[in-house]
Amino acid sequence: MSDILVFLRRFVTHPDRVGSIMPSSRFLSNLMLKQVPWHTVKTVVELGPGTGVFTKAILQKKKPNTNFFVVERDPQFQEMLSKRFPDLIIRDEAVLLTSYLEEMNFPKADAIVSGLPFAVFPPELRKAILDNIYEALSPGGIFVTFQYSLQMKEDLEEKFGQVQIKFTAFNVPPAFVYVCIKK
Length: 183
Known about the structure:
The protein is α/β, with parallel strands linked by helices. It has helices at 3-13, 26-33, 53-61, 75-84, 97-103, 123-136, 153-160; strands spanning 43-47, 67-71, 90-91, 109-114, 137-147, 163-168, 175-181. It has a single domain, classed as 3-Layer(aba) Sandwich (Rossmann fold). It is 37% helix and 23% strand. A hairpin with a 6-residue loop joins strand 6 (163-168) and strand 7. The mean pLDDT is 90.
């Protein structure tokens, strides 16, 4: 089944977990990942990889000794990721991000790349995930996420201070990329 059909099906059956009917475009992936200073990253985490568009690019960009794992809650996406990337470490709850780093004995993350659909999450869950992201990042670490609106701007500015916003029209739907640095 094509990635588009899988996304559409998961969106219809779980609109509280899947925020789009389409996987992210290569344009969005390129814009997101060019924000990461790959030469200094020792630990990178991807949240909400879906079918693995960003995962594939991260695996190509990261250094061989960089720690990497993904957090994906949806069982069908987990299965697809396991088949596409057999050595990939997959966990399932973004609110347990700091626990996963400790469990695997990884240092704090230098980069967290997120495809999580924050707009569909209840405010308490959104806050809990953002708290975990902030705690999981090393000082100077980068958090890069995208959304289809500017709804997250205030929450991210409250958590990180200054937030850089970029935009790509070459995605369905067009997307805003948020770049946040932990002070």
